[in-house]
Specification:
Belongs to the ABC-2 integral membrane protein family. This protein has 272 residues and is mainly alpha-helical. The chain has helices at residues 4-29, 31-51, 63-93, 96-101, 107-137, 144-168, 178-192, 205-211, 215-227, 243-264. The protein has one domain.
Length: 272
């Protein structure tokens, strides 16, 4: 038992990497997915940042810099939630998951392959948005302490969004409708979570309350802490960054997402 476990683990790891490579190649070959999943957040950043570029009162921080920080949350949500949810729905509908169930590829390697795709896309997405924010809108880069916050915030955000994408794929009956179904909550949450409309305090209090139950509001707030000066915290709902609450909310959504995955995951449409 102990002698074969390391070999089995190594085999699972190699199959996971191989599956991740396949997932990435399939994604890159689909130009529509590349544009709308990867490039669309950067295009929106350029649009919002150009139109709404005025400074925030006496802070010296432009609205475009606020958008640049907040849009990182949107990029992660798109790559994690939408990409994972649509990909699983497609694989379930065309029988890929059912066929994989009868092959030596364990489901763990399949899901890890999907996770590797999301991780590569999320890192690339964040890098692109930071690059646009820096070069186009002169967004300041954080110090080492803020980069450390960025690291745990990024990991929790990707994990929560990816797990929720796996869970929500169970309600998608047809892969062709996955984009519409998954993007509706994504767009809605951007408007009420302080991503598309800033500062968030201009929104009605009941909308802010609704947004507070979902991870995107806390993700955007955390990334604003990382990239914006401390003077900008007065534009948050409580007048502070609330890093502890951000960590707790995102951690709770990771647990919720995992439970939903275990409850709702299906190999095929016949498993409904």
């Amino acid at each position: 038992m102990t002698a074969t476990s390391p070999v089995r683990s190594a085999g699972t790891a190699s199959m996971s990497l191989a599956r991740g490579h396949v997932e990435l190649l399939q994604f890159l070959r689909d130009r529509t997915s590349v544009i709308f999943t990867f490039l669309f957040p950067a295009m929106l950043l350029l649009l919002f940042g150009t139109i709404f570029g005025d400074s925030y009162e006496d802070t010296g921080v432009s609205a475009s810099q606020v958008y640049a920080a907040s849009m990182i949350a949107y990029g992660i949500l798109t790559t994690g939630f939408v990409t994972m949810g649509a990909g699983l729905a497609m694989d379930r509908e065309d029988g890929t998951l059912k066929r994989l169930r009868g092959t030596p590829l364990p489901i763990v390697s399949y899901l890890v392959g999907k996770l590797l795709l999301v991780l590569v896309l999320a890192v690339s997405e964040a890098a692109l948005l930071i690059l646009v924010g820096r070069l186009v809108f002169d967004m300041p880069l954080p110090d080492a302490a803020h980069w450390a916050t960025f690291a745990w915030l990024f990991v929790l955000s990707v994990t929560a969004c990816t797990l929720l994408g796996i869970a929500v794929s169970a309600i998608v009956r047809h892969a062709r409708s996955a984009g519409a179904i998954l993007n509706v909550p994504v767009v809605f949450l951007q408007f009420i979570s302080g991503v598309f409309i800033t500062p968030i305090t201009v929104l009605p209090s009941w909308l802010i309350t609704v947004a507070s139950f979902f991870p995107i509001k806390w993700m955007a707030q955390g990334f604003r802490y990382v990239f914006l000066p401390d003077s900008m915290k007065r534009f948050e709902v409580t007048g502070s960054w609330e890093l502890g609450r951000i960590a707790m909310v995102l951690g709770a959504w990771c647990v919720i997402g995992l439970v939903l995955c275990l409850v709702t995951f299906r190999w095929s449409d016949k498993d409904r």
